[in-house]
Amino acid sequence: MAKWGMVIDLEKCTGCQACTAACAMENSRLPGENWQDVIFFTEGEYPSVQVKWFPRPCMHCEKPSCMYACPTGATYKTSDGVVLVDWDKCIGCKYCMIACPYGARFYTDEKPLAAPDMRKVFRSKDDHSWSPPWRMPDNREDWRRGVGVQPRGVVSKCTFCYHRVSKAPKGTPDLDPSDPAQREFAPACVVACPPNARYFGDLANPNSEVSKMIANKNGVRLLDQLGNKPQVYYLTGSGGAVPTSRSTAKS
Amino acid sequence: MKLDILNTVVSRRRFLQATAATGAAAASGLGPVPIAGSAAADAKTAAASKTVITKNVCNQCPARCGIDVYTTDGRVHAIYGSLESPISNGKLCPKGYLGAYLLYDPDRFKGPMKRTNPRKGRNEDPGFVPISWDEALSAVASRLQNLRDKGESHRFALLEGRGWGATDAGLHGTFGKLYGSPNVAIGHSATCADGGKKAKLLLDGNYSYNAYDYANTNYMLVFGASFLEAYRPYNNNLQVWGHIRTKSPKTKVTAVDVHWNTTISAADRALLVKPGTDGALALAIAHVILTEGLWDRNFAGNFNDGANQFKAGETLDPAGFTEKWTKGLIEWWNAELKDRTPKWAAGITTIPEGDIVAVARELATTKPAMALFERGPTAHSNGVYNGMAIHALNALIGSMYAEGGLMNQMGVPYGRLPAKSEDFIDDYAKSDERKRHPRVDLVKKEWLMASNQSQAVAANHLAGNPYKLDTILFYMTAPIYSAPEARKWEEALQTMFVIDTSPFPGEIAMFADLVLPDHTYLERLQDAPIYPFQGWPMTTLRVPAVKPLYDTKVYGDILIEIGKRMKGPMGEYYRALGSTENILKHIAKGFEEKPGDNGVNSFESWQEKGCWYKKPYLWRQVRGEFFEWDGAGYNKPMKPEEVKTKLLKTASGKFEFRSSYVQDNEKYAAYINKALGVPVERVGFPQWIAPQFYGGGDLHFISPKVPLQAEGRAGNLPHATSIAQPVAGGRKTVYLEIHPDTARKRGIADGDRVRIKSSAGSIEAVARLYQGVRPDTVILPNIHGHWAQGRWARQSRLPTGSASEIIVNKSEPISGLAAYYATKVTVERV
Q1: A119-128, B46-55, B521-530: lowest mean pLDDT where?
Q2: Closest Cβ–Cβ partner in B91, B721, B772 for A42
């Protein structure tokens, strides 16, 4: 069974936020509730200033603290290594949002970033939080996997575009969006990334490109000391910046 | 105050049409209810759904990125870059994903409308009522006919913004010629990037942007071009970045700007230049390249005795140097460069001497290398000379037409139009009386060398100089928001009959007498040849993904339909032209003889692939020799006259450091002398002239373009607004970037509401204290401050207006480019 994971090369990342915008489109996200965010920060004093950016999807941890915190079993790890939320089981208690060290989870009652509230402009008549005219095709919605227009009263998060990834032929080592045969299975942010800073593949396969890149380029994981063991690795090259990371000996 | 422009004007017929077309009119709250999580429902919808991918071209910037539009059950739900487009290569910048939000923008106009409220103003409800297309088109035609009958056809102006190709902006010239107005069309290029084009024309004879071989370059020196934010083609630039920064050897990048933006942050070296002084920096770099003997001898030639004689402050005998593909190097040195030392430039630019020397050495010793620039250096009173100084570096380092260097863009072999316009010009249009009337923007008169001066139209109309306009039509442009002293347009448009063609509400529509809404791009059939990219020719096609949601009409057909309603030969011409679809079928015939690399040889295959292109670029300079592609490689040596015809199109056929275009034209030389004070005998040299600043303030006011600008519509797109970063962007608004020391002196704290004031006016914004901006400069991207775009944009939000409202309307005299970055402002806490 695959263990899907992502590699993000920070030396290539230009901070353009195409990942954020594509994710929002693919997953019918509300404005500003970015499953895939790019966080900007500045350091230093003029004229030695650094502006940095850090792309942050859900880490799909091997040991997801959100899953352990979930009282109903709504958050779970799939056999192919993806952390999902079952919206039919989620009670919206938000414990997982507190437990997640990466700030990767979203609830629907947050104040809209831009008024008027898009949920009122494109009002839903059912349990969906809204009904945008560009929403994903109805048959792709899969509430047991947290895929679709987010319903009211539940927590949501990046699914690694499970509605795409899960359709990849078994045994595929990497989902390369430049290959027309694999393109439709790769996560939206990976398809989107203009400088090709994102790679997606099977971490359990030592012959996958992602595994090789992590090995060759010393892939590191965000906040590794916490022991969550993210399945998203960052390559720092000479141009990137990962906030404090330290490997842990714990298995 | 009620602004009914934003209320949906929908007749029952249109409502039914819309709901039938989309299957779900979301704005009306109707729509199929998906039942998720139910296996039975899933199976049912799965059986009914089929996803169709249509080819289109992104509309959010001029790059022409090919897109795949995913439509399922009649709704567009995804857009990705097309793998078949050599520009997008399957990728898109963040703006590309906004397309469906634009298509389904609930504030879109639903059909043609006319104004019922004769009063016009920001707070006047236009009182639009729906009319039929026939009524709307006939109203325009009879108005134009009436002007013509009175001999006043010059009083009709058409202002053109982002033109796409043969079926929209490509129709304008002919329309003006047949109708008899010099003002069809007045382009937006003087509020865009004419400064760079003119600088290149003067030096290498090509009035165009360059194509660049980024993939093979090893060094880039970027002057104020926002390479990772806005420089076209932005999406491809981002792809290039991923490649050049990880290839071997890694491409080094030095970026010159006035604040820390993404480009400068990602670059290896940041040079924070005093606004308007980039030319001084470039001249000093040239000085170092020469004094240190680092110039490319293959391209620029050498001293006859082979020994470098360039010494600071010392003139040289031109006879001692033999040039190869350049002309006037020693004259330039004697007239200008000999005194342009790094020390001199450091005093002007504030960039340390050591950095200037280091950059010059890197640029000249790393091969291939390139210098590129855009509005940062050129949107100043001295912009063309700044641009010339920078572009001249490309000749000194031999990157013109070299691998990893700069090229020009080849044209597309379109087939002939269905009718020849020359056969349809009537006596009226040909008459001497018609030639008597200058353009209303006074191009070729007051603006002797400029191509356009759309930013002058409002003031000229108000002053009746050269005359007052009667009717004005806007296509893809809104100077009322984006032109310097934008508020002048609010005054001017009160006394003109205004026709808007945007699919969306906006500031122009608030003053419109007629609204003839275009389709949005995902509904259009439309061609779009590319901007300069990699040199080889390419054109693209938009194929409608869905039927038009509303009662709109593609702009080209609006123009053709107006034409058909004109009397005489003009009407005949447009009847012969037929429609935009007919035009596209005719121009596609050009592909029969020259099939594209992707097999496109017909209208049908063009629709299927979305683009036609033919690689490679045909010419290359290799170590000072020019070669033409012979089918297998750059093997065919070119004669100097071929280089002159095809590449270096100056009078000498050389890259001219002493521009004959202006130096040998008495009128131009006198004009430049008068406008800029440059002695006539030296107008042709790239040189330092001090920039002029306007507005009466003490802080430079710079309004850069940011990644999510989305061709002026981001203000009404919450998805864009909410993620717009960095640096001054971010979460709902843009901020005024101000250095903490500068702010402290004015009692301004982070997050304070501030007033930004110049002699042109004032706006208010939120201050963000930012270490990454020069202490003598404040930055406010021009993305928000819209007041009539739609329900999101019109929320009371800071800034209170467009940055253009406080930019003084002064233009660089040679190119006519608006000196957008030459205003100085005061900033105070409100």
Answers
A1: B46-55
A2: B772
CB contact under 8 A, B266 and A11: no
Asked if B180 and B429 count as a contact pair (C-beta separation under 8 A), the reply is: yes
Structure confidence by residue, pLDDT tens digits, B12-43: 344 334 434 343 333 333 333 333 333 333 44
Those of residues 696-725 in B touching chain A at CB distance below 8 A are 707-708, 718-723, 725
What distance in Å separates residue B629's CA from the closest CA in chain A? 29
B260 SS3 class: coil
Give the β-pairing of B184-186 and A232-235. Answer: unpaired
What whole-number distance in Å separates Cα of residue A183 and Cα of residue A168? 10
For residue B111, give both structure tokens. 């059909």
Q: What is the pLDDT of residues B546-604, one digit of tens each?
A: 999 999 999 999 999 999 999 999 999 999 999 999 999 999 999 999 999 999 999 99
User: B98 and chain A: CB distance < 8 Å anywhere?
Assistant: yes
- Tell whether B265 lies on the interface with A, counting CB pairs under 8 A: yes
The predicted-structure confidence for B643-658, as pLDDT tens digits, reads as follows 999 999 999 999 999 9
Residue B27: closest CA among B545, B518, B549:
B549
CA of A110 vs chain B CAs: smallest distance (Å): 14
Chain A CB contacts of B50 under 8 Å are none
| CA B522/CA B690 separation, integer angstroms | 47
pLDDT at B604: 98
Distance from CA of A234 to the nearest CA of B (A): 15
Q: How far is A36 from chain B, CA to nearest CA, in Å?
A: 11
Q: How far is B550 from chain A (nearest CA, A)?
A: 15
- Please tell me the predicted confidence (pLDDT) of residue B14: 41
Nearest to B722, CA basis, from A23, A139, A231: A23
In sequence order, the 6+-apart residues with CB closer than 8 A to the CB of B47 are none
The CA distances from residue B109 to B25, B471, B551, B552, in Å, are 14, 21, 9, 8
Verify whether the Cβ–Cβ distance B266 to A239 is below 8 Å. Answer: yes
End-to-end Cα spacing for chain A: 20
Residue of B nearest to A121 (CA): B27
Nearest chain B residue to A45 by CA: give it: B771
Name the minimum distance, in Å, from the CA of A249 to any CA of chain B: 31
A52 contacts B78? CB cut-off 8 A: no
Q: Please check whether residue A171 touches B, CB under 8 A.
A: no
Q: List pLDDT tens digits, range A23-46.
A: 999 999 999 899 999 999 889 999
Chain B, window 770-829: residues with a beta carbon less than 8 angstroms from a chain A beta carbon = 770-775, 791-792, 795
Domains of chain B: 113-192+413-529+552-592 (3.40.50.740), 213-401+650-670 (3.40.228.10), 699-829 (2.40.40.20)
Chain-chain contact of B95 with A21 (C-beta, under 8 angstroms): yes
- A181 Cβ partners below 8 Å, 6+ apart? none
CB B71 within 8 A of CB B79: no
* Architecture of the domain spanning A4-235: 2-Layer Sandwich (3.30)
Distance of CA B21 to the CA centre of its chain: 34
> What pLDDT, on the 0 to 100 scale, is given for residue B6?
42
Q: For the stretch A58-91, what's the b/e string if a residue is b when 16 or more beta carbons lie within 10 angstroms of its beta carbon?
A: bbbbbebbbbebbeeebbbebebbbbbbbbeebe
Indicate the range of B26-30, B417-421, B703-707 predicted with least confidence.
Answer: B26-30
pTM greater than the 0.90 cutoff: yes
Residue B754 in this model has a pLDDT that exceeds 60 = yes
**For residues B434-460, average pLDDT:** 97
pLDDT, position B38: 37
Which chain B positions have a beta carbon within 8 Å of A177's beta carbon? 90
Q: Rounded to whole angstroms, what are the CA distances from A132 to A18, A34, B27, B662? A: 20, 16, 9, 57
